[in-house]
Automatic annotation (TrEMBL), chains A, B:
The keyword Hydrolase applies. The keyword ATP-binding does not apply. SUPFAM superfamilies: HAD-like. This is Hydrolase, haloacid delahogenase-like family.
């Protein structure tokens, strides 16, 4: 879970630029640059760092000090070196599911960075397959389940982004369980509620186990 | 094939910095920064751009103009927007092999950028599988052939980098065919000759077809 590191990085970026712009305006400028650059750079720390640098150009009208850019490079490098902190109950839940279900990790971001995080996390051994995706649109999930040779009704996504993990999976006929996290990036927020037969919300990851048992249509036989 | 675009980008970088350093010194500084950053950023245009920016800091002692950084961002963005130019006979060779052999593309670089290039190239349809790798060490190829459920002796890599495409594949017991290209990045060069039973060199990609026919140990049955 990189979210807190990115939010912390944004705060440091605003701090860096405080001589030029109030905190909130610097944040908005960075956010705008990041979202504009998504089609070009995709997700991940490298694109985020390039966006910070581009925002420095815009905020200082190309008149800022190179030290600002040095600061942005350091912020990016720091995120890449952060330890991986597992959320509570993630490992025990994966352990319980392992063997009964075919577990796949689907994540987006920089290839090398995501591989490194997975290695650091020690979770790779629970997964049948790791998919590092450039995007999480419905076409991307469709490609994933084709590749896994899995029917949509046998696929269940568990995730903390309604926009990226839940909606596209419901759109292709899959099942989705939302585990809210207290920090969500602006760009991952949606402004409506989801009601759908195949949508379910839990408070913590370990509720997945009793939930799966309670759902007759999600037996070990279908979800594997 | 991105090589010429990267070399052109390096020239533009040296041109940008000519007030500070002679061409060759600027190139060496950039190269050193790129190689140092490979374990952190991996391969691809985004890491290359971040390295250009870091090299600007070093070359100008943090005293340069932000316009230099703007120039580096523009060089990076330009590589990402370049058209994909196919080398001669690549498509017709893939077409001829398709159906008889299981074709896999193995490439390294930024995930989104590589996906975009593949889409632009129109070549995706010939491949059974696309593997975008963070590295091309022997462990990475071992993981690839495990994933493909392919024995090393049934695997043949065709590539233009002796260091990344050929040596690691020979090390894991696979077959390798080298198709030299007139531009090779410094970091991909090796300083010795390869002699190995499973190593072969051709001048152009289309020689792959008669080569495969001539090799009894590489029949359609083994290489699929």
């Amino acid at each position: 879970m990189n979210e807190p590191y990115f939010r912390e990085a944004e705060e440091r970026f605003c701090e860096l630029l405080k001589a030029y712009l109030p905190y909130e305006d610097a944040y908005q400028e960075l956010y705008k640059t990041e979202v504009n650059n998504l089609p070009l750079y995709g997700y991940g720390v490298k694109g985020f760092t390039l966006s910070m640098i581009e925002a420095i150009m815009n905020i200082t009208n190309n008149k800022g000090d190179l030290k600002l850019v040095e600061g942005a490079l350091a912020i990016g490098r720091e995120i890449l070196g952060k330890p991986v902190e597992l959320l509570e109950d993630v490992e025990s839940t994966l352990k319980s599911l392992n063997g009964d279900y075919r577990l796949v990790m689907a994540t987006k971001g920089d290839l090398l960075d995501q591989e490194r995080k997975l290695l650091k996390s020690g979770l790779a051994k629970y997964f049948h397959h790791i998919e590092i995706m450039s995007n999480k649109n419905k076409e991307d999930f469709q490609k994933l389940i084709n590749h896994l040779d899995c029917a949509p009704e046998e696929f269940m996504m568990v995730g903390n982004s309604l926009k990226s993990d839940i909606l596209p999976v419901l759109q292709i006929g899959g099942n989705a369980v939302y585990v809210p996290y207290h920090i969500t990036w602006e760009h991952e927020k949606i402004d409506h509620h989801i009601t759908h037969d195949h949508f379910h919300q839990v408070e913590t990851i370990k509720e997945i186990l009793p939930f799966l048992k309670s759902q007759s249509y999600l037996t070990k036989e279908t979800l594997k």
